[in-house]
Amino acid sequence: MKRYIYLLRHGETEFGKEKRYLGHIDCNLSSEGKYQAMRLGDIFKENKMEIKSIFSSDLIRCKDTIKLVFPEREVTYLRELREINMGIWDGLTFEEVKSKYAEDYINRGENISSFIPSNGESFIQCQMRAIAVFKEIICSTTGNIAICSHSGFIRALLCNLLNKDLKEIFDIKQSYGGINIITFDNYNFVVEGINLKNVTC
């Protein structure tokens, strides 16, 4: 039986307008982010989309998003659904990293797949984590699923499902409050929609 997996990016954060590295650091949703989350909730209601299980990153920006999308529903929060770990860069602006860690900043740009900031993880490591938890969620559930996570995590997972090289990771657009649709028929995963703002059922 065909199953639908709705992979959601959290709403805009309080740092949403800034060019800042946000990994495992916690931050709140902005007012716009809360609106985006409520709009996601409206989409699921209007389309009467049946969701059997709901999962989310345990970081505040995802927890607050999923509570607004599915109020009063049980949610399983998993650390494994967190954003890529940016280590000592976490919370710093692009300009601060460029100034404090100039050589590493250049190295990451040249080796986006494998570069690891101090105390952080690479996109390869993030992708392996994403694939593992995604398969675990699929195998431990039935029916349609909603998962709320982060742009880096989602892009890394989609690269795998689309057979794309991680060097192309930023070619996959992920807007705040965007929806990605993946279907599973017990044999194959198919990416049916990326970064959607609405869904027609």
From TrEMBL:
Record Pfam families: His_Phos_1 (PF00300)
Catalytic residues identified in the record: 10 (tele-phosphohistidine intermediate), 83 (proton donor/acceptor)
GO CC list: cytosol
Gene Ontology terms describing biological process: negative regulation of glycolytic process; regulation of pentose-phosphate shunt
Record carries keyword Transport: no
EC number from the UniProt entry: 5.4.2.-
Keywords linked to the UniProt accession: Hydrolase, Isomerase
CDD domains in the cross-refs: HP_PGM_like
Entry binding sites for substrate: 61
Protein name: Fructose-2,6-bisphosphatase
Organism of provenance: Clostridium saccharoperbutylacetonicum N1-4(HMT)
